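Run log, item B.
One chain of 135 residues. Sequence copied directly from the ordering sheet:
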Amino acid sequence: MTGDLPPIEFMFPGAGRDRIVAAIRAGEKTATSSLVREYLVAGEPLPAVGDRGAVVDSAGEPVCVIETTGVEIVALRDVSLAHALDEGEGYASVADWRRGHVRFWTSDAMREELGSAFVVDDDTSVVLERFAVVG
């Protein structure tokens, strides 16, 4: 199923990742958000339309293949309700989406990756990615 595809990890291993993976497999989650800074710190290229990867569960096992169908970089203040809803995580508003994501992006685990001085504000660049399950 996955061949030489790169692994795609949502959140950190645990209940949050398992919930997100289940939503992807059920077709409820068709979008995700990350910070441009995450890619810069990791030295990885930003996602591009046509990219494919193997979604892994908390045990590190591949569970499905997704393909990127759209990528947009916006300021945090410009994330749309449509994107928040397409994340399939039960957000009812952009404000709900923002609270959940800022909480994650400022968590201790993310601060270890992004740097403790990193600030999330209205101007923070967010990568909005849309995808489809293809295998």
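Observations after the first pass:
- The mean pLDDT is 93.
- The chain has five helices and five strands.
Flagged for discussion on Thursday.
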